[in-house]
Amino acid sequence: MCGTQIACQGTTADNRGMTAFSTLPLAPAVLANLTQLGYDQMTPIQAASLPVSLAGTDLIAQAQTGSGKTAAFGLALLAKLNPRWFAVQAMVLCPTRELADQVAVEIRRLARAQDNIKVVTLCGGIALRGQRASLENGAHIVVGTPGRIMDHLERGYLTLEGLSTLVLDEADRMLDMGFFDDIAKVAKQCPPERQTLLFSATYPEGIEKLSKQFMRNPQRIEVAAPKTESLIEQRFYEVTRQTRLHVVGQLLRHFRPVSTLAFCNTKQQCKDLVTLLQSEGFYALALYGELEQRERDQVLAQFANRSCSVLVATDVASRGLDISQLEAVINVDITPDPEVHVHRIGRTGRAGETGLALSLASMPEMGAVGKIEQYQNKPSTWHKLDELTPTGKGPLLPPMMTVQILGGRKEKIRPGDVLGALTSDEGGPAYTREQIGKIQVTEFCTFVAVAREVGPAACAKLNAGKVKGKSVRARLMTVATQSLE
Ligand code: AMP
User: Which residue, 10, 92, 463, 470, has most beta carbons within 10 Å?
Assistant: First the structure.
């Protein structure tokens, strides 16, 4: 992919042999923060890219979600930032809002070592007005989707004269989603002397086009992708149109995975399956294209913090979803595209964990199964439905429950404030750190995971006590929170 205008050099983490963050030119406070975050060693993509990006060179890096790529570009852009200058100095373009939110969270964590760095997310599905106000209050870093960023630029709410770093995250996916023109327009408004960092899992043609147009002598970095596929156990089951949805419950009762992502080919199938699973007593939620942003946030928060057992999704809706612990993927419908199949099942078995990929196929789908076999270059393993007997005691319940606090970043709530309220004696008995899970603060509300047994009591405690010295309203989230009309 290296054209004549681009000087490309391949490099790998292995031949560098240095993986301590202290080998990098980073400030002592930044290094101390990394230690606090538990980042002891650089991941391969960090070890290969940070020496290059910290030196100011443009970069094309091949990296997957979960590889530590956010810190790879986050540390580079933060190193150049001047906190005392209130101008947008770095911008990260992402394909989806979920990814943008994750990137913003990670950058805020990395920025804890520096004074008051403001990170603003600009994505579609949210009123422009609030985003404009956040920009007016002064933002150092903008993270968002190309369409919405373009919108702000066109209206003059966002100016990029002070930009020193432009990051294109998951560039291949942005191209897949038709963002080339928006990216091009945004890039043209950035100062030409800025540094550009491009991260992509694959190198389709469009990447070369982007790099030729918008990058200066980029150095190319590849890190061999960890081979996780062998850790995924694939099982196929033959079903009929009538039995298909019922078999999903049988699989869940047999394997009892804590978190399952179930893929359907249509929105209607998602709704039908969620309705059935809920009637069978499972904690299942649906994720499909037309969900309102607010609802999408609620669904994703509950699934990611382990208070929902099954997320039933379409392929498009699940783009950008990064759930680290996913015991099982169920292909409720076989996808006609073998590449999509491999992408679906690749979501389980991450980071060296074993994963289960269960696929349901009816006679008319056997052609698609054949294509998958050819693509993966291995035959599928078929299992019989009568092997599926319920195991374990009682219904499959998620280990956590989510309490939603009606107040978020706008109210300046931070995870530590909520943790403080739950571990104090105010409003009811104090909880231990082990009973409290993920605390996710979004713009307008906060999702707190607590151990299932203490869910209602923890919610009552939050309503009775104070968070950051103020009374708050909290409610326990249940499957009934999602309407499937
Ligand atoms: P990413 O690929 O950016 O989505 O990162 C995946 C996860 O790895 C995130 O939860 C990061 O917080 C975490 N992470 C990133 N770098 C390191 C590191 N050097 N050591 C340990 N964890 C890391």
Answer: 92
Does the global pTM surpass 0.85?
no
Residue minimizing CA distance to atom 22 of ligand 1: 39
In a domain, 2, yes or no: no
Last residue of a domain, one of 223, 258, 278: 223
Tokens encoding 287: 């994720």
Residues 74, 188: one domain? yes
Are residues 239 and 126 part of one domain?
no
Domain assignment of residue 152, yes or no: yes
Q: pLDDT digits over 435-473, tens only?
A: 998 888 888 899 999 999 999 999 999 999 888 888 999
Same domain? For 174 and 286 the reply is no
Is residue 293 one of the residues assigned to a domain? yes
Bridge partners, 448 (sequence order): 403, 439
| 63-109: pLDDT as tens digits | 877 788 999 999 999 999 999 999 999 999 998 888 899 899 999 99
Residue 242 to residues 249, 254, 484, Cα–Cα distance (Å): 14, 20, 21
Q: Kindly give the distance from the C-alpha atom of residue 322 to the centroid of ligand 1, in angstroms, as a whole number.
A: 12
Who lines ligand 1 at CB under 6 A? 39, 42-43, 46, 65-71, 106, 322
